[in-house]
Amino acid sequence: MFLLLPFDSLIVNLLGISLTVLFTLLLVFIIVPAIFGVSFGIRKLYMKTLLKIFAWATLRMERGAKEKNHQLYKPYTNGIIAKDPTSLEEEIKEIRRSGSSKALDNTPEFELSDIFYFCRKGMETIMDDEVTKRFSAEELESWNLLSRTNYNFQYISLRLTVLWGLGVLIRYCFLLPLRIALEFLSKHVHLMCYRICVRALTAIITYHDRKNRPRNGGICVANHTSPIDVIILASDGYYAMVGQVHGGLMGVIQRAMVKACPHVWFERSEVKDRHLVAKRLTEHVQDKSKLPILIFPEGTCINNTSVMMFKKGSFEIGATVYPVAIKYDPQFGDAFWNSSKYGMVTYLLRMMTSWAIVCSVWYLPPMTREKDEDAVQFANRVKSAIARQGGLVDLLWDGVDH
Amino acid sequence: MGSRSSHAALIPDVENIRRETGFSQASLLRLYHRFRALDRSKKGYLSRVDLQQIGALAVNPLGDRIIDSFFPDGSQRVDFSGFVRVLAHFRPIDDDTGVRDPKQPEPLNSRTNKLRFAFQLYDLDQDGKISRHEMLQVLRLMVGVQVTEEQLESITDRTVQEADEDGDGAVSFLEFTKSLEKMDIEQKMSIRILK
């Protein structure tokens, strides 16, 4: 057992090095381009190389088969028999037409030999017809080294076996863990990004009642003061966002976010269509594995002193609602974004140059619509709860001049 | 998909089938895969229903009769060797059978056997003669709805008269063969399988 010790450290070192290499590669080749949306063209190169290898493998197998004097089974998608270009229907018409024009008394001609044509046609369809062909399992013309999809793999020579073995090794020991790692990472990277943003703004956030945090398959509803609300909430949990597609800087950010997580974005025109919105949200919510949707039902930003009437759309869906109240402390930085006055960039600048952003987030216990309430009443109930918690004034104005 | 071997050894009784039908190994392999594709429920044999599923066969006027030719003697199943035996009738005639051993049975795709196959499509009751009634039925199938019953009858009469030599009102196999002796049966009743 002690003999293993020197090897132990060697193995550990090797493992450490290989892991480091792996992660560096991961970072450089996958994460960085993903952030910037740039592709190195590695995947295309990979595919081209694979195709070349498959073609070579098939050639080798053909040669192997020829040596043994056997036939290689090649599935032809063009059919197995030589066919006439005319179809059956055309021929029938032709026969009947020519028959009727020949006879003087206008009776169609018939010969004993006419039967041969139909007989042969029938046999042809038995041997090969379009429909059944499509239904039989897809057979690749060249072997793709997966050995689950080819009939001819008994003709493999030694070289080919080695190649196949290598392929197995690569697939199981390299691609598989890589893909699992990516899957795992993407969630954390997402969270990381938000946390970084929060740090950038020197935000001090106090979370209250974290046990009431929204769960999968629900809707998280919060009062809306600034776009930073999103960052603040998202840095403490995973959400799927709902919102309008913005142009400009916001659009870029939105597109980047979409890549990391499944969000639900709407075009401006779609937003008007309440039913479409409701339908998409319902679909998302009903999938229990999807992240909770984050909705700001007020629509526009309020100056954080009042909670305007929540638009009832989000409350019609019937899922569990997790209300969240966000309140900023105005002493250190006014987070209010008056979108009619400032653009996004100016706003960000103001944010960055204020001392700090201090806010409190309260996670309220989940609420569901009662049987005898309609959407509006439910919305009001949620709104009051949020307002009460945040110490905000509960307003009835819904922000739109009717 | 599984690791299905393409080796001809997979086909049961392949040597006998080869000898009997004269198909090459490659052709047999193709037909075997076709057989398996048609046998959707993987029973190992084909039933009438399996063949009726082929859409293009359903529009063929002789579709039902062609299907029946696979099920001789009232059987309800056809295995691969039966399947191939029928299809062998449509193999193109070999040019190299100049001198054939007379003791050997005639190959399935000889001219005579092709004619016999076609004859059997007419002769429903298998009594060796195509009666007027049987002729009428086939005609009705093939020439179809455009023609009145009287016209059908007159065509039938004419056709039988032309072929019938001994005047028994029916067409025997010999009479059938004779009336078609000038016809290029080989070309009309052959299907070439691609390599």
TrEMBL record, chain A:
Example of a GO cellular component annotation carried by this entry: endoplasmic reticulum
Keywords of the record, alphabetical order, are: Acyltransferase, Lipid biosynthesis, Lipid metabolism, Membrane, Phospholipid biosynthesis, Phospholipid metabolism, Transferase, Transmembrane, Transmembrane helix
Domain Phospholipid/glycerol acyltransferase residues, every copy: 218-329
Q: Which InterPro entries match?
A: LPCAT1-like, Plipid/glycerol_acylTrfase
Pathway of this protein? Answer: Phospholipid metabolism; Lipid metabolism
Q: Known Pfam families for this protein?
A: Acyltransferase (PF01553)
- Which parts pass through the membrane? 12-42, 162-182
* Similarity comment: family membership: Belongs to the 1-acyl-sn-glycerol-3-phosphate acyltransferase family.
UniProt-recorded name of the protein: Phospholipid/glycerol acyltransferase domain-containing protein
Q: What organism, scientifically named, is this protein from?
A: Sciurus vulgaris (Eurasian red squirrel)
UniProtKB/TrEMBL annotation, chain B:
Which GO terms label this protein's molecular function in UniProt?
calcium ion binding
In the UniProt record, which is one GO cellular component term?
Answer: nucleolus
Q: Which UniProt keywords apply?
A: Calcium, Cell membrane, Cytoplasm, Lipoprotein, Membrane, Metal-binding, Myristate, Nucleus, Phosphoprotein, Protein transport, Repeat, Transport
Localization, per the record, is: Cell membrane; Cytoplasm; Nucleus
Residue stretches making up the EF-hand domain: 110-145, 151-186
Alphabetical list of SUPFAM superfamilies matching this protein: EF-hand
- The lineage's top-level taxon is Eukaryota
Query: Which spans of this chain does the record mark as coiled coil?
Result: none
Q: Name one Pfam family in it.
A: EF-hand_7
Q: Name one GO biological process term.
A: positive regulation of cell population proliferation
**Family the UniProt entry places it in:** Belongs to the calcineurin regulatory subunit family. CHP subfamily.
- Output this protein's name: Calcineurin like EF-hand protein 2
Origin species, per record, is Sciurus vulgaris
Q: Which gene encodes it?
A: CHP2
